[in-house]
Amino acid sequence: MDFKIVLIKLDHREETASSVQNILTDYGCYIKIRLGLHDVGTTACSTNGLIILELIAENEILEEFLLKLNVIEGVIAKKTII
User: Fold this and answer.
1) For residue 1, with 0-12 CB atoms within 10 Å meaning exposed, 13-18 middle and 19 or more buried, which class applies?
2) What is the pTM of this model?
3) CB neighbours of 37 closer than 8 A, spacing ≥ 6?
4) What is the pLDDT of residue 45?
5) CA triple 17-28-63, angle to 5 deg
6) pLDDT of 34-82, one tens digit each?
7) What would the DSSP string read from start to end of 15-54?
8) Which pLDDT score, from 0 to 100, does residue 72 have?
9) Considering all CA atoms of the chain, what is the largest pairwise distance in Å, rounded to the nearest integer?
10) How far apart are CA 71 and CA 7, in angstroms?
11) Nearest-angstrom CA–CA distance, 26 and 77
């Protein structure tokens, strides 16, 4: 069994998060696991973030998903299949 892992790095999280969330919602039925990471403090949140996903999508859908994410300025999405 292969694990399809996607890493999504967001720069300027306040500006990119809503566009990324819309795509995640569109592909939500393919997302098995989702973990979001960013630094937080008592006075402010980090402007960058990382989302780790495990998908159960066919490769064609996975590539389409990555293309849509990588079009967004400030977002880098990469996959690994292990």
Assistant:
1) exposed
2) 0.91
3) 49, 50, 51, 52
4) 76
5) 85
6) 999 887 777 777 889 999 999 999 999 999 999 999 999 999 999 999 9
7) HHHHHHHHHHHHTGGGEEEEEEE--B-SS-B-S-EEEEEE
8) 97
9) 44
10) 15
11) 16
